[in-house]
Amino acid sequence: MNVTLRGRTEHFRTVAFDALNNSVRLIEQRLLPHEFQIVSTPDYRATAAAITDMVVRGAGAIGATAAYGLAQGARVFRGSDLKKFSKHVDLVFKTLADARPTAVDPVNAMIDVRRHMARGETVAEQQALALAAAEEFANEDAHHCAEIGRHGAKLIRNGMTVLTHCNAGWLAFVDVGSATAPLYAAQAQGKKFHVFCDETRPRSQGATLTAWELAQQKVSHQIIADNAAGHLMQRGEIDLVIVGSDRVLGRTGEVANKIGTYTKAVLAARHKIPFYAAIPCSTIDWNLKRGRAIPIEERHESEVLGAWGVTQTGQREYIRVANPTSGARNPGFDVTPAELITGIITPAGIFKPRTLWQNRHRLGYKI
Ligand code: MRU
């Protein structure tokens, strides 16, 4: 998407690859919205660390980062022994897959890259195929998001107010975004609407990232405290909810997404407000049979006990907010059951959550 900084507008992708230096290039998301910086990870371990430390975050973006990371790791192997090469690639795969547990996109992306690599007969061929496949995954991610926009824009009517949670925007993908794609497409069609961005404690991706994106794209929006949505729904001030997801179960239609999503889905159902999740095909897990089996990331308690921000002199600082002697629990994601979800917006159209399995071939099921 376009970013305007000091009056200059430039197009950026969240994740890219520098083939000359064998490095992954990322927007340093922890600094946004206060500073826009591109960083490079010099090797696959640094790429995995960038995922763990949330330099890059959001299911689609970490999927593309893992795909590039796998190619990056594969390309440093020296020698022609295919068995040794395959062992090395296993290690790279595992390191990147372990970087964050809840989103399925990194694993799906890397399985895809390995499937392409298997067509090569030499190490050199497989290395070249790895990078080509990672590039293809990144391009497909951007294309899928644009298609989500095309289908989802139909849900947005003039005068609507849309609630979104966390950041499922272009920063969470390679480009365009999932939950924001219908907003950008509707805006391009000339529709007028307003967006409420859930602040999304504890890391505040809604207040920092989604709000920054929407401001950049000149979409009318306001940030709301996480606890405000119920009140606004009760007063008829929210017409539609669109969220992203880190893992949708293809067999059950359950949706794992940022902590607080389930709460919003319960509230939306109570107030009969349509609730949609927008996803590219790489977010679908066709294997798991129940939401309880989804690994839920538990993050450090410091995220709940305080907050990061910028002081009046521009210094980035962590401030302790909570009682000094208290600890905290910090699950990063929750799982929303299918019956609370009106539809899943995908690149192939909008589906009822329980119909994903019967539509699996349209949705990229490969096994
Ligand atoms: O912890 P994060 O910032 O990676 O969480 C991101 C979200 O929960 C998004 O809503 C999700 O990845 C879906 S959009 C890619």
Characterise the protein shown here.
The model has no long low-confidence stretch (mean pLDDT 97). With 367 residues, the protein is α/β, with parallel strands linked by helices. The chain is built from 10 helices and 18 strands. The strands form 5 sheets. Strands 8-7-6-9-12-17-18 form a 7-stranded mixed sheet, with helices on both faces. The chain has a 4-stranded mixed sheet with strand order 13-10-11-16, covered by helices on one side. It has a 3-stranded antiparallel sheet with strand order 3-4-5. It starts with a strand and ends in a 16-residue tail after the last strand. The protein has 2 domains: 2-145, translation initiation factor eif-2b, domain 1 (Four Helix Bundle (Hemerythrin (Met), subunit A)), CATH 1.20.120; 150-359, Translation initiation factor eif-2b, domain 2 (Rossmann fold, 3-Layer(aba) Sandwich), CATH 3.40.50. Strand 7, helix 7 and strand 8 form a beta-alpha-beta unit.
Secondary structure topology:
Blueprint (H helix, E strand, L loop, with lengths): L1 E4 L2 E4 L3 E4 L4 E5 L10 E4 L2 H9 L6 H17 L6 H16 L7 H13 L5 H30 L8 E4 L16 H8 L5 E5 L6 H12 L4 E4 L4 H6 L5 E4 L3 E3 L5 E4 L2 H10 L4 E4 L5 E2 L16 H4 E5 L5 E5 L12 E4 L6 E4 L2 E3 L16
Parallel strand pairs: 6-7, 6-9, 7-8, 9-12, 10-13, 12-17
Antiparallel strand pairs: 1-2, 3-4, 4-5, 10-11, 11-16, 14-15, 17-18
Helix pairs in contact: 1-2, 1-3, 2-3, 2-4, 2-5, 4-5, 5-6
The structure holds 5-S-methyl-1-O-phosphono-5-thio-D-ribulose.
The site of 5-S-methyl-1-O-phosphono-5-thio-D-ribulose has 15 residues, from helix 2 and strand 11.
